[in-house]
Specification:
By secondary structure, this protein is of the alpha/beta class. It contains twelve helices and twelve strands. Helix 6 crosses helix 12. The N and C termini lie far apart (93 Å).
Length: 340
């Protein structure tokens, strides 16, 4: 027997195709008794319901939004900030009956990403985001960028990383620190991570105003051992920093571990500032002083901007710059008093 169709079910019950379709898609239009007869007949015939692909084609929409990611899924789900962003996007899309499709941008067949059925795309911290954006736009797919350099003609959502980093640097300067180290994210190839670039500018804004030239190390986000080793290289210097400004709370946690390995106390011997206010920052020991970005708000803003773009709002009204906030906790303190 061939594939059972909606018409087969309609013939078996003695109703129209539309009535069978309503039984699956608009049950409120049928009496409970009629719907029960249709579903029973469908089950007996082995009919599982309308073809989602055909339904999407008929509606002219896929019912899903793609989220382009620069890392593999294992790395994304290992990052508390990326995970929080992903959950916020998924939850917000669900309110509009849209599904979320995760699209890692790593791999050997980048062109295939533009062929995925999606009503729009959110491009999130992708190292080669420009190529992905152009590929999607050439196919008429609405795009929103997040944490990237804004592109002409493309809606965007960014965090005011520069202002947040400036506040972090001003905090340690106000505590009396003059030997300051920067622990930033390494660039990948020719691409500069936009949050890393902006945070570097913010730190240096405040430090330059105070006449301070910082020491700097960079490390990949993973493995964690690379961050740990980079921080140790700073702390083993004869003129080691008394304060570290870190790209993220994950980096800050590795800085605290490296200090502990060398017998340095945080904050008595070394002040450490993170960025993000990740879920673990307030319960870490010592609790991390950090710059809070509201990751959930960022995810919701990305969806809001994309839906507005789908509705035809002009791009110039679809730019969001979200604020940051310095959160002072236990990992920073006054500059150590030199021992005699």
């Amino acid at each position: 027997m061939g594939k059972v169709t909606l018409q087969d079910v309609a013939d078996a019950v003695g109703v129209s195709r539309m009535t069978v379709s309503n039984a699956f898609n608009r049950p409120e239009k049928l009496s409970e008794a009629l719907r029960a007869r249709i579903l029973e007949a469908a089950q007996d015939l082995g009919y599982g319901g309308p073809d989602p692909s055909a339904r999407a084609l008929a509606r002219g929409r896929a019912g899903t939004v793609g989220l382009l990611l620069s890392d593999g899924l294992g790395e994304v789900f290992g990052d508390p900030v990326a995970t929080e962003f992903l959950v916020a996007v998924g939850d917000e899309l669900a309110k509009s009956s849209l599904a979320l499709t995760l699209v890692p941008t790593t791999g050997d067949h980048p062109d295939s990403r533009g062929d995925l059925p999606m009503d729009g795309a959110i491009v999130y911290v992708c190292g080669q985001g420009a190529a992905d954006i152009e590929r999607l736009r050439s196919r008429g797919t609405p795009v929103v960028t997040v944490d990237q350099v804004p592109t002409d003609g493309v809606p965007s959502v960014n965090v005011d990383d520069r202002a947040g980093a400036r506040a972090a640097a001003e905090h340690v300067v106000d505590l009396g620190h003059r030997r300051v180290g920067l622990v930033n994210l390494a660039s990948t190839g020719t691409a500069e991570n936009q949050p890393a670039l902006q945070r570097n500018l913010g730190w240096r804004d405040a430090l330059a105003a105070a006449g301070i030239t910082p020491a700097e190390v960079r490390a990949d986000f993973r493995p964690a051992a690379g961050v740990h080793a980079a921080v140790r290289s700073l702390l083993e210097r004869e003129d080691r920093p008394t304060a570290l400004l870190c790209f993220s709370d994950v980096f800050a946690a590795q800085a605290v571990r490296a200090a502990d390995d060398l017998g340095l106390r945080v904050p008595e011997d070394l002040s450490v500032v993170g960025f993000d206010d990740a879920s673990f920052a307030g319960t870490y020991r010592p609790a991390l002083t950090t710059v809070r970005q509201r990751v959930g708000d960022k995810g919701r803003a990305a969806v809001d901007v994309l839906l507005a773009s789908l509705a035809g709002e002009p791009v110039e009204t679809l730019r969001r710059l979200l604020p940051t906030e310095l959160v002072v906790r236990e990992s920073t303190g006054p500059v150590p008093v030199p021992t005699t």
